[in-house]
Design brief:
The structure is a single chain. This protein is an alpha+beta fold. Helices cover 44% and strands 27% of the residues. It is built from 5 helices and 5 strands, in the order ααβαββαββα. A 5-stranded mixed barrel has the order 1-2-3-5-4. β2 and β3 form a beta hairpin. It starts with a helix and ends with a helix.
Length: 162
């Protein structure tokens, strides 16, 4: 008989579960590193293709992909699991045309509505913004945290001290 079968049943089950969890963890780590490399490569391509544009921000909202008014090709090329999520969408006047653009989350928070800005745009994606006239753009003040968010931040702070 093998040594694994000579052990009591609960110990055998525990060892099998630990081996399966370890294999799953290793697989997720490898998959995650590959995804991170892909994301870095695509980010470098977007930065290389980015160009500055002056635009008047008409409106900004977080909308689902289907409601956003983006081109059909963009919606079809998006993975199915992301189509239901809300994305930051900006309606802006670029030159004589009114365009619907996607936006980076940090740039979306800084965008002033009904003002002209200078933005770095790659295709239909706004990567960063700067003020064209007037004071520099800053992040708006953070909203008051809810109970769960406060508890999470306290737990993270306590874990960081140890």
């Amino acid at each position: 008989m093998t040594p694994l079968l000579l052990m009591p049943l609960p110990v055998t089950i525990l060892i099998i579960v630990l081996v399966v969890l370890l294999a799953a963890f290793i697989a997720i780590a490898i998959w995650g590193s590959k995804q991170q490399k892909k994301a870095e490569a695509s980010q470098q391509q977007m930065e290389a293709a980015a160009q500055p544009m002056t635009m008047l921000i008409i409106d900004k909202k977080r909308l689902k992909m289907k409601e956003s008014g983006l081109p059909k090709v963009v919606i079809e090329s998006t993975p199915k699991y992301l189509r239901r999520s809300k994305i930051p969408v900006v309606k802006a006047k670029v030159g004589p045309r009114i365009m619907t653009l996607m936006c980076d989350d940090t740039a979306f928070e800084m965008l002033p509505v009904k003002q002209e800005v200078r933005a770095m745009v790659s295709g239909i994606y706004i990567m960063s913004v700067r003020s064209l006239r007037g004071p520099a753009l800053t992040m708006p003040p953070k909203k008051k945290q809810g109970l769960l968010a406060r508890l999470r931040s306290k737990a993270a702070a306590a874990a960081g001290k140890k």
